[in-house]
Amino acid sequence: MDREVRVRFAPSPTGPLHIGGVRTALYNYLFARRNNGKMILRIEDTDSQRFVPGAEDYINEALGWLGIKIDEGVREGGPYGPYKQSERRDIYREHVKMLLDRGKAYIAFDTPAELEAKRNEIQNFQYDASTRLSMRNSLSMPADEVKRLIDEGTQYVVRFKIEPGRNVEVNDLIRGKVVIKSDILDDKVLYKSADDLPTYHLANIVDDHLMKVSHVIRGEEWLPSAPLHVLLYEAFGWADTMPEFVHLPLLLKPDGKGKLSKRDGDRLGFPVFPLEWHDPASGNISRGYRESGYLPEAVVNFLALLGWNPGDDTEVMSIDELIAKFSFEHCSKAGAKFAYEKGKWFNHTYLQQLDDRALAELFIPVLKEHGVNPDDFGIDYITRAVAMVKSRISFVRDLWEHAGFFFVDPESYDPKAVKKRWSEDTPRIMNELIAQLEALPDFSAKPSEEVILKWITDNGYHMGNVMNAFRLAVVGECKGPHMFEITELMGREKTIERIKKAIENIKPDEPAL
RNA sequence: GGCGAUUUAGUGUAGUGGCCUAGCACGCCGCCCUCUCACGGCGGAAACCCGGGUUCGAGUCCCGGAUUCGCUACCA
Predict the structure, then answer these.
(1) Rounded mean pLDDT of chain A?
(2) Structural domain boundaries, residue A363
(3) Residue from A262, A419, A500, A507 carrying the catalytic annotation
(4) In angstroms, how far is B25 C1' from A1 CA?
């Protein structure tokens, strides 16, 4: 079989795109590109009750940010549109009629309240071959009464008539053959007259068929309804062009049990959405990967490896490399706990690949947030500062913690370091150090280090104590890059100014009694 | 409850009957580097769900059980 690969990502606009949905979209995209196929974005807005304004734009923006390109969709257009289900009502009506005419479906008048009562009355009640004749539908009622009810405008649904006693086979590309008895399936609602809209199952099958989808790649939560979908393809007479099914393992909570949820992110401190989301109804704000400082490449790489591997030990891969290596053979079957710690590592890794100047540009907004005017320093200065500390950051905003001292004087001095490195004698030595620094013919790192270290040694001073007091005065704590790299960038004047300031402000600990 | 899926270190995973004294990565611990904190380098602790079977040989095949997850709506 050499049919064109066509896959679709079909989210419902009921809120922000969940990170699990993002991964499903990603796998669809990787598979499509790998096989020179097409990626379709279809908006499944058949649940008018749960529609959330802004959700569709969010989906587009999120996929765009991640570099998941859509070939056919609501925005992109394409030969099989419209790509929004609420605009395909005529198509669904026509197909529902097709099923009705063939006796594959029937009309049911049972109200939600009646069904609810039935479920309470009979445990494990299921609307199927064994019960449908005792319900109010076109199978149990005379034709003229059915017609009368419809003419009167009574609300009804169309149910799929499942024939019992069959073994339905679903061939899943990850899990192999899954067989299920048709008896355990219920007569699913395919269409509701109340809003003149189909349910997921009908719309999904009709659209996948009409849009010539070759592979249905979706989350594992759909596996139980896959047999129903197979039966629908058969009922329509489309069995020979039925797509291949691929059910992806779910993304689970990092700790505990169950599916990853928004609450887990709040609880454990990581985003579960690609972009920040402002809920229009509640006003709640949910964190996004983008706003949290993640690079899209890192998110893609991280997500790709949650449930798939390239078959070797390679971990850091660009999206093009992922495309080149992607296949379902290396997809895992079990759900993956969401390892967000590794996501941080990926971001760290990708940040290291950015050149210093690009990173400095990204740092500028952070500087402004902290009240620093970047123009006071210039991009070259910022770039050099960034270069010195980049290896220790996982996020752009971490740059402030590690390089902030290049831009603002210490406001306080780490008490523990003061206790350890700043004694009564230190101010005297620091004053000597100032004299040494002032006398330096060349203030750049190498030569100044030579002179200062020699001065320390010649005077019999303690290397660790002097250098750390020096560092404490300049940085505010005992950490950071090589001391003389710092002073070279900061300059003689600033360096000496900070030492003087420290001498004034640091009060050595009272000696213990 | 029913149905389905699932099961390798804390986590993500490699493994397609002998090359497995089970590999890689994140995380954790230690050492080195060193004026400090990191980075980096080196090293370490840490896993085949359980029970039967098949086989000369099982993480890998079969059976049973358990586990975990999902589905069980006029939601997707």
Answers:
(1) 93
(2) 354-398
(3) A262
(4) 38
List b or e across A255-280, with b for residues whose CB sees 16 or more CB atoms inside 10 angstroms: eeeebbebebbeeeebbbbbbbbeee
CB-contacted nucleotides of strand B (7 Å):
1-8, 10-16, 23-27, 35-40, 68-76
Q: Give residue A397's pLDDT band: very low, low, confident or very high (50, 70, 90).
A: very high
**For A153-187, what is each residue's pLDDT tens digit?**
999 999 999 999 899 999 999 999 998 999 999 99
Active site residue A446: no
Residue A293 forms part of a structural domain: yes
Domain count, chain A: 4
Q: Which of A222, A389, A394, A172 is nearest to A302 (CA)?
A: A394
The C1' atom of B48 and the CA atom of A112 lie apart, in whole Å, by 50
Instruction: For residue A389, give the nucleotide whose C1' atom is nearest its CA.
Output: B38
Per-residue pLDDT at A280: 87
Same domain, yes or no: A348 and A437: no
Q: Tell whether A82 is covered by a domain.
A: no
Per residue in A265-280, pLDDT (tens digit) is 888 889 999 999 999 8
Q: Which pTM value belongs to this model?
A: 0.93
Identify the CATH number of the domain in which residue A456 sits.
1.10.10.350
Tally DSSP H helices, then E strands, for chain A: 20, 15
Report CA(A159)–C1'(B3) in Å, whole number.
21
